[in-house]
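Me: I keep going back and forth on a fold encoding question. No explanation is needed for now; the record alone will do.

Assistant:
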Amino acid sequence: QLVESGGGSVQVGGSLRLSCVASGSTFGSTCMGWLRQSPGKEREGIATIDSDGSVDYHDSVKGRFTISQDKAKNTLSLELASLEPDDTGMYYCAAVALYGGYCFVPVRMTQVRYLGQGTQVTVS
């Protein structure tokens, strides 16, 4: 199971920190990621991290968002900075199957093995 927290309403330019606590075998996945579904858009992967700590980001969040993991605490985090109205959406934590042996964005929905219930981020 994956349980997200940390969402909320924030002004343009503000920051948030999202957390995801994993239980069971979900954090044993070699690829973890954050997905976002904005109003009127399909769910898309925005950040991934593999078991070695290598990260990848969607172009729309590069330089503003930071993904990290704490294996000792089975926790995945996403730091959101310089938030923009287009960052509004539901953010999901996911355990992701490798694609061609790699962990990177974009994340195909068929790669998602486990998905949290989501946490809402609203930027205005």
Remarks:
- The first strand starts at residue 2 and ends at 5.
- The CA atoms of residues 45 and 105 lie 6 Å apart.
- DSSP finds no helices and eleven strands in the chain.
- The radius of gyration is 13 Å.
